[in-house]
Amino acid sequence: MIYNSVDTEDTSRTITMAVYRKLEGKSTQLLEKIREHLEQLNEKIDVMIEIQKHGQRELPENLPETLDVMTLLSLPDHLRKTAVSLCKLEKATADEVSKQTKRARAVESGYLNQLVIMGYLKKERQGRRAYFYIDRET
Amino acid sequence: MGKIIAIHSYKGGTGKTSLSVNLAATYARRGKKVCLMDLDFRAPSLHAIFKDYNPEYWLNDYLNSVCEIDKVLVDATKDHGNGGKLMVALANPSTEAIRDMTAKDRKWEMKALGRLLALRSALLSDGDFDYIIFDTSPGLQYSSINAIVTADVALVVTSLDASDINGSQRMTTELYDLFEKKTGILVNKVVAEHLSTKEGQKKFNKYLKSIHNLPILATIPCYCEVLRAAGKFIFTEERPEHPFTETLENLATSVEKF
């Protein structure tokens, strides 16, 4: 009887541990997902803040399709700096651009996303990192 | 990491090509690895100086994504290396090629900018070049603005002609400043009386600085010997004792430190 009780106790402990592990794994996954969504939300808020701050008035009415040098010249100063920096880097994250322009990452993230909205840049996610680039082929 | 230098001007005939070639030769004489590129697709010039070289491909082909840059570069080290290395990229001088380059659309120009920017990793990082010198076309041409955006340093060549001074002023404030480009002024073909005395030279430099509001990296006198050479050979190579060669040496040092 005693042996049986120990066996049952061990089994129940093993089951409890397995359930904990499973739950722990699930909650980590869940937390990871929440973090990803929060990051995406953060980026969207950055864009909204930028658009609100500078307003659409500063942007040319009829936007040209391509990000060539003439378009670069027509951009407002703050966006031109970001766009030129990305031209040089080819493909980069907001963090990499911010190191070149010496402005805050969140600011560059806002400007880069604004350039994406304007149709000059493309954005691509690789895991948790968002890469910006100029699509010269299509 | 090396440096990309764009030599540009508002008007034609200011001496961009002559200064580009001689600056490249000066750096080569200092043992540097130099690449000289003809980005004046409307009026290609370097092929006339490097006429003995037959490139497999032109710089036009590189920008058209027909080939990579190594197929364009011709090695002029044997004749013009003088201790360093001099590679040259020539623009296609045929009328058909000039017509083709002037008819490019904005999308092509955007790609061309990407190809020019890619030279930084291909030649400066991987190719180990110390200097890439762009000889550009005058004024606000697409190819010139692409070259300026790509370059680390822009050198604006200007004469003392009133329209040239005025145009250069506008170009630097309305174009170069927008790209936050490190810019220096080269005043070329200066008449002798401005530089005849030390005092006069000082006064003249002060005047130039006040009108351009940018560093004056060189004031180059108008030498009859340089004009007589008529671009048939690299002057600083043939006449090492000439004051023009000394001026170019000083310019090379100024740009190096700039």
Concise synopsis of the structure shown:
The complex is a heterodimer of chains A (138) and B (258). Chain A is mainly alpha-helical. Chain A contains 5 helices and 3 strands; from the N terminus they run H-H-H-E-H-H-E-E.
What does this structure look like?
The complex is a heterodimer of chains A (138) and B (258). In chain A, 67% of the residues lie in helices and 9% in strands. Chain A contains five helices and three strands; from the N terminus they run αααβααββ. In chain A, β2 (122-126) and β3 form a beta hairpin. Chain A starts with a helix and ends in a 5-residue tail after the last strand. Chain B has a single domain (3-257), classed as Rossmann fold, CATH 3.40.50. Chain B is globular. In chain B, α6 runs parallel beside α7. By secondary structure, chain B is an alpha/beta fold. The two termini of chain B are 15 Å apart. The chains are: A mainly alpha (138), B alpha/beta (258). Chain A binds chain B through residues 64-73, 77, 80-81, 84, 87-88, 90, 134, 136, and chain B through 106-107, 109-111, 113-114, 117-118, 120, 142, 145-146, 149, 175, 178-180.
What are the salient characteristics of this protein?
heterodimer, A: 138 residues, mainly alpha, Arc Repressor Mutant, subunit A, B: 258 residues, alpha/beta, Rossmann fold, eight-stranded mixed β-sheet
Topology of helices and strands:
The complex is a heterodimer of chains A (138) and B (258).
Chain A (H helix, E strand, L loop, with lengths): L1 H53 L14 H6 L2 H13 L1 E2 L1 H8 L3 H13 L4 E5 L2 E5 L5
Antiparallel strand pairs in A: 1-3, 2-3
Chain B lengths: L2 E6 L7 H14 L3 E7 L6 H4 L9 H5 L10 E2 L1 H4 L4 E5 L5 H8 L3 H21 L4 E6 L5 H9 L2 E6 L3 H15 L5 E9 L7 H15 L3 E6 L2 H6 L5 H4 L4 H15 L1
Parallel strand pairs in B: 1-5, 1-6, 2-4, 2-5, 6-7, 7-8
Antiparallel strand pairs in B: 3-4
